[in-house]
Amino acid sequence: MEIFDEKNDDTYRTVYFNEAPIHEEFALAMQNLAFHIEKITGTSYHNLAVDGYYRQPSGNSELLTIYAHLSVNYESSTNMAVRLHLGKDEYAWIDRLLEDLSLCEREALLYITKGKRYGLDKFLSINTNVEPKKVA
Nearest Cα to 24, choosing from 105, 116, 124? Predict the structure, then answer.
């Protein structure tokens, strides 16, 4: 679906919605970006989970923002956004980064357009608004 944002004049943004859970290969592809977060920041993180990324034109380069969080005891404790100008900043692992981004995009398209899931056709859905039946 394309959304017109009045604040951006004539700029459109494409937004995809799919209520099915993402498939494991998509999650693993996104998690590959954790390696790049560590290389870009020069720090090693424990329990780093990648949430997503955003690519946008920036002059004669492209600004990549990778979003992640550190989770402790299954709770999010620290959010981060790591940025790199593709085509402008020096980055020793650029080839691997571009391959990892390409893999993420391939898996995302399979999820969005083909409905790729965990290998299942059906999912269990639990309705929490239903009154439990009384047993006599």
Answer: 116
Measured distance between the N- and C-terminal CA atoms of the chain, rounded to whole angstroms = 51
CB-side neighbour CA atoms (13 Å) of 96: 11
Q: Hey, how many other C-beta atoms are within 10 angstroms of the C-beta on 103?
A: 17
CB-facing half-sphere around the CA of 19: CA atoms within 13 A = 4
State how far the alpha carbon of 90 is from the alpha carbons of 12, 39, 45, 129, in Å: 31, 12, 22, 53
Q: How many CA atoms lie within 13 A of 5 on its CB side?
A: 7
Can you tell me which residue has the tokens 């269990």?
A: 124
Quote the tokens at residue 5: 């944002």
pLDDT (tens digit per residue) in 12-51: 555 555 566 666 777 888 899 999 999 999 999 888 989 8
